[in-house]
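User: C-alpha cells for this one?
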Amino acid sequence: MFRSFKMMSLRKPFVMSAVLIGLAPAVIAAGQAQAQSNMGNMPGMGNTKAQVGQSAPSGMGNMQGMSGGKAEAMTATATGTVASVTQSQRKIKLDHEPIPAFNWPAMSMEMAAAPSIDLSKVKTGSKVRFTVKKGADGTYTVESLSPAQ
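Assistant:
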C-alpha cells in the first residue's frame, strides 16, 4: 500500500509538467496574437500586419532613419580633433562636436576610415572637418577628412 501511494505522488508532478508543456505553444501563440492585435491604435504604427518576408509596418517610414523597414544611408559633417589613428585597421578616433543629424552629443568615437582617406597624413591632435556616413548596415565610416578652418 505504501509503495503505490509513493508511486502516485511521484507521477503527479510528471503529469502536471507534461500538461503544462503541452499547453505552452498555444498560450504563447495566443499572447502574440493579442500583443499585435491592438498595435494599429498606436500613433504612427498604421497597418502592422506584415507577413514574413515583408517590410516593416508602413507607419514606421515616418520615423527618422526608417524607410519602411530598409535602413537609409545618412551623412553628416562635423568638426573635431584626431585622438588616434590605427592605420593597420583603417580606424580613426575623433573627439567631435555634437552631430545633430545622428542625434549624437559631443564625444570621442573610433570609426572606420574610407579607403579614399590617406591615414599616413593624419596626425594626432589635428583639428579636422569630417564627413561621416551611416551605412545601410548601421556602421559609421569617415568618408572625408580635411583641416578645420
